[in-house]
């Protein structure tokens, strides 16, 4: 069998490529000419130069003779861009074209890497489940909104006959996080910057479990269904304490009061007008950091048999990869 993987040079995609190869599958990766290849080093996969926005004809040709398609490519670091035009073009328009191309190519399964973010923010004291829908204003969380819109496109494709299965990972932790998304906190911890934490929290999941969920979704996921791929629900102070411990540092000494967050968010907005997108956080992230965006991943464990890896195990694996590949001083 042959799998076609977009986003294969990224975090989830590269780990998925490694897992598929270990199962004896042939793997074709769609990658941009500018994409760094460090995450694919040592992996015997075919690569095609291209982009999810190249158009339906080019994408159909790229995935020819492939049985499974894993669409992991997306812009998730939206805060690094001054506008969100590219975010929606890649995450929504690109996904629509991928689905159209997959239908033309006659693939057996199309697994889409959505996000827990597409499900919105739960009421206090509740956990997100697969039936939840995006419930905040788009400008408050454009990444989540873009994933919500992409899922809507795929539900249309599923209704038209495309064998789509959607997976919704929470915050992914582990090796090969080359773009420093979630694992950026390891760099912050090493530099002693995690001395405070926001009052909220979210769900964190091992990249190994996410990869297992993708493959299980292709093998036995129900068409048109969503599956949350999640691990532990943790407060940010617990997460930062675990990251600090890897470097022999103390847990955060301050948990910011909720009333401070809007003030801090305003300060971040002002700072971004000076330093631009280089600032590793934006005001929208700050405001969301008061929420406890917890999730219930029991559906994926029961239906797909997705394993559970403790957060600290996944974090240490990410730390060791960063250490061994020069991401830490």
Automatic annotation (TrEMBL):
This is NAD-dependent epimerase/dehydratase family protein. GO terms for cellular component: cytoplasm. It comes from Mycolicibacter heraklionensis. It comes from the Bacteria. One of its GO terms (molecular function) is aldehyde dehydrogenase (NAD+) activity. Residues 4-230 form the NAD-dependent epimerase/dehydratase domain. InterPro entries: Epimerase_deHydtase, NAD(P)-bd_dom_sf, NAD(P)-dependent_oxidoreduct.
């Amino acid at each position: 069998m042959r799998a076609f993987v977009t986003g294969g040079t990224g975090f989830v995609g590269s780990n998925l490529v490694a897992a598929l190869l270990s199962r004896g599958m042939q793997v074709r990766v769609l990658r941009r000419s500018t994409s760094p290849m460090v995450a694919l080093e040592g992996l015997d996969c075919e690569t095609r130069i291209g982009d999810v926005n190249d158009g339906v004809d080019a994408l159909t040709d790229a995935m020819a003779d492939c049985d499974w398609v894993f669409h992991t490519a997306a812009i998730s670091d939206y805060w690094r861009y001054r506008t969100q035009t590219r975010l929606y073009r890649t995450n929504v328009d690109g996904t629509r074209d991928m689905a159209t191309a997959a239908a033309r190519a006659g693939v057996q399964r199309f697994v889409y890497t959505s996000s827990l973010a597409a499900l919105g923010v739960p009421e206090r004291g509740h956990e997100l489940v697969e039936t939840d829908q995006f419930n905040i204003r788009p400008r408050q969380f454009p990444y989540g909104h873009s994933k919500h819109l992409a899922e809507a496109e795929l539900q249309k494709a599923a209704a038209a006959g495309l064998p789509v299965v959607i997976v919704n990972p929470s915050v992914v932790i582990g090796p090969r996080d080359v773009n420093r998304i979630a694992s950026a906190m390891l760099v912050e911890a090493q530099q002693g910057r995690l001395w405070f934490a926001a009052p909220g929290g979210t769900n964190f999941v091992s990249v190994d479990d996410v990869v297992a969920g993708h493959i299980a979704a292709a093998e036995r996921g129900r068409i048109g269904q969503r599956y949350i791929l999640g691990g532990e629900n943790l407060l940010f102070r617990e997460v930062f304490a675990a990251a600090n411990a890897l470097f022999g540092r103390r847990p955060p000494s301050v948990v910011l009061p909720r009333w401070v967050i809007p003030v801090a968010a305003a300060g971040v907005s002002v700072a971004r007008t000076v330093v631009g997108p280089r600032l590793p956080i934006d005001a929208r992230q700050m405001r969301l950091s008061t929420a406890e965006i917890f999730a219930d991943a029991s559906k994926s464990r029961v239906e797909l048999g997705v394993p559970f890896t403790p957060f600290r195990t996944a974090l240490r694996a990410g730390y060791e990869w960063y250490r061994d590949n020069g991401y830490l001083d």
